[in-house]
Amino acid sequence: MKLRNSLLLLLTATIWGVAFVAQSVGMQYVGPMTYVCSRSIIGGVVLLPVIAVLNRNSSIHSGETPQERWKGRKILLIGGACCGLILSIASTIQQIALLYILVGKAGFLTACYILIVPLLGMLFGRKCGLKHWCGVALALLGLYFLCMAGGSFGFAKGDLIGLACALLFSIHILVIDHFSPLVDGVKMACIQFWVCALVAGVGMLIFEHPTWANILAAWKPILYAGAMSSGVGYTLQIVGQKGMNPAVASLIMSLESVISVIAGWLILGQALSGREIFGCVLMFGAIVLAQLPERKKQSV
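The chain above was modelled as a monomer; its predicted structure follows.
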């Protein structure tokens, strides 16, 4: 189960890493909230037939009382609404950050959730072992070599926006960790996308002036981000995180930064430097370290 969930989260990171290319291209045509709203609608639509098929092939509500069914639906709606609200704000801030800073630096700042998640988890009684903290330190070092090509780091306006994005995605991971064992992951993901689309859509109508021409011009990056990054990626995150330590899950998903560099090289022709390759090696080393089993204490 743990290996399967780890592979699902690795696939999630791959989808999200490629999505950085789509996000960068999409912002050439539409505003941040328009992009988030459009991709979320597609993500929600993609999951509707999936839910219909799953409901048809499963014997839901068997042996449940009406009170238990109502309680389950209530938790599902609350979980989906909370995830959708946080996701909408975090995704919009991530898009805004790309207006101020380079993609590499945005990837580094966003992936700082690998450090923030265990820190926030400690507030709720979750403990991390030494290997987790070593994995976090190694991953941060790898991200630095991977994304900070100039070797410098400063906090300007865009940097603070990127850090705010990392904090919100950390909260998103912990909220999923709380609700995913209690509800159907695919259904919660679907609700999440519709709530995300609603929140971003309201902001889009207030702060932006979207046109159908611009949205249609960006249909390829929006379609990928909606169907794959949102519809498939965030659903795999919810399913893959079930039963996983959120600190370990965040480390695996942080590989999206590695994948984004590789995708930029393959799709956009951006070459990898020796420094970036070294960062990738450190990142993979951090993931392997975090996945090593804890040494059991022998009883005397």
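The radius of gyration is 19 Å.
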